[in-house]
Amino acid sequence: MFVYPDAGAAWVPASLRPRRDPVTTTHPTIVLTTFTFADEAERSAFRQDRLDAVARFLFEHLGRYGDPLDQIQRCLRRASGGAPTDGGTVTLAEDGGEIVGAVVTNDTHMARYTPENLLVYIATHAEHRGRGIGSALMERAIASVDGSVALHVEPDNPAAALYRKLGFTSKYLEMRLER
After folding, report:
1. CATH of 17-165, one of 3.90.550.10, 3.40.50.620, 3.50.50.60, 3.40.630.30
2. Which of 20, 77, 103, 143 maximizes the CB count within 10 A of its CB?
3. Edge-to-edge strands, sheet with 19-22
């Protein structure tokens, strides 16, 4: 089910509108919206109207698993950008217009030798956890991208169980040289 623009708004073809559906969780008023940034109008509207609110939500609700606000904003700009190395999706769970969950993916542009998508952030509002929102967000985000999906998760993150349940495996041990 798509939610169409208000009566006074310009009509936008379904293929260019963000996908917006009610989600079956234990909280019946949750609505999922997926932004795939199909054209410059959608990219621009998201960056102008939603980017900062989504970044603040993620910064607040990622807790100790999060990043500084400016890095989250940079990730969202990359997902919603129009440059050849940009691309991604943002999926939001909202209850009465309030963000209660979010997932951000970035395109890697490295098909054939690494997963095409990196799931960079997922967070659910603490007051809404345990209601199926995280699972619904993950399922929608995975369905909204083409190709494989990779993510990084700390070993003690309770969300690791959800990722395994959805079919994610630990193929590699990640090692980094920080500079």
Report:
1. 3.40.630.30
2. 103
3. 19-22, 30-35, 88-95, 98-107, 117-124, 149-151
